[in-house]
Design goal:
The chain is an alpha+beta fold. The chain folds into 2 domains: 10-229, no CATH class; 274-341, Orthogonal Bundle (Arc Repressor Mutant, subunit A), CATH 1.10.10. Helix content is 40%, strand content 21%. The strands form 3 sheets. A 7-stranded mixed sheet has the order 1-8-5-10-11-12-13. β11 and β12 (157-166) form a beta hairpin.
Length: 342
């Protein structure tokens, strides 16, 4: 990592240095932000200091401001806000003192902070303390693409010197998976997130080298970039299908597709004709039926594998929706196969 105040432009950095960072430095120099300072696990290169209380946030409901559709709460007095989407900040040069709610993190070149949805972080030009310079690469999903921009901080003045939107839709999913692995502290989550981060950077490097991105002008709004092609309900259905055997909540899926709880409820019902719970239950029952027909697994194992918490609930629900018990369904399916063969 360069320590000079004049790093390469954004696209050159992505093309030639970002992958190297993900492979050699990220695992030791990436910190996951938390709402509470006591829950943050700091790498040796990053220091923390208190920042004081934020107080009551300002409601964003009905406010017409840039990116208001992804901002959940705001503290204008302190220059802080929370989003429905994750962000990754990587210090390219200089030193960044970033306020994250009630604490500061001091990051040096090569240090990075992953900011999950719901964690307070800087808004507008409230990035760093005065009399400090730094250049920061920021990555964050917008609609179905990944926005990447380079900001230059000089004595409190913040300027965006490069801003692109990469069109590969897998990048946003990969970053969100990294957030899941790290924030939920899953088994092998650190190792998995390291590999995912390298995959993200390799993909980003390839897309930039092939020119598959849109340059965002200072006056442009991200809402105009392929907004018509983004369907949050379609993305929600894909996410549900991929995580069917895990705990799924309406709030979690709404967050993944960048909608408020109320917006998600209305849009999901309008497009699917079902509530969130009805849709998930139907998919799980269809999966259970398939496993009953095609495997010799026990009923208890199928119940657990398809995301149902209690076998007793699974039996009652299956009988009510399918019209017979799981055992009866399996016997009927086997008999039907036998009759087909004869």
């Amino acid at each position: 990592m360069s320590t000079t105040p004049h790093p390469a432009p954004l696209r050159e950095f992505i093309a030639h240095k970002l992958v190297e960072w993900s492979q050699n430095e990220a695992r030791e120099r990436l910190v996951t932000a938390r709402i509470k300072a006591s829950e943050v696990r700091l790498p040796e290169t990053i220091e923390m200091s208190p920042a004081g209380k934020l107080g009551r946030p300002v409601s964003m409901r009905g406010r017409r401001v840039y990116n208001s559709h992804i901002i959940t709460t705001s503290w204008p007095r302190h220059g802080q806000e929370t989003l429905r989407i994750p962000m990754l900040w990587l210090v390219v040069a200089g030193q960044l003192n970033i306020r994250l709610g009630e604490y500061y993190l001091q990051l040096n070149p090569g240090d990075a902070v992953l900011i999950p949805p719901g964690v307070p972080h800087p808004s507008g030009t409230h990035y760093t303390r005065p009399n400090i310079y730094c250049d920061v690469l920021i990555m964050s999903p917008r609609n179905r693409q990944m926005q990447c921009w380079l900001t230059r901080h000089r004595n409190g003045d913040v300027r965006q010197i490069d801003n692109i939107c990469v069109l590969d839709t897998s990048l946003a999913d990969t970053l969100e998976r990294v957030v899941e692995e790290l924030t939920e502290e899953r088994i092998n989550g650190q190792a998995i997130s390291n590999h995912l981060l390298t995959t993200l950077c390799l993909t980003l490097q390839r897309e930039v080298q092939l020119g598959r991105y849109v340059e965002i002008l200072p006056t442009a709004t991200l809402a105009a970039i392929e907004q018509a092609d983004y369907d949050p309900v379609d993305k929600a259905k894909q996410y549900i299908q991929a995580h069917l055997n895990q705990e799924l909540t309406l709030q979690k899926v709404a967050q993944v597709v960048h909608l408020s709880r109320s917006q998600f409820i209305v849009q999901f019902r309008a497009q699917t004709g079902q509530t969130f719970v009805e849709y998930v239950t139907q998919l799980r029952l269809e999966w259970a039926c398939q496993l009953l027909r095609e495997t010799g697994w026990t009923i208890h194992h199928i119940c657990t594998f398809t995301g149902f918490k209690a076998p007793s609930y699974f039996h009652r629900l299956f009988h009510r929706k399918i019209g017979m018990t799981p055992i009866q369904y399996r016997k009927t399916a086997i008999q039907a196969d036998v009759e087909k063969q004869t």
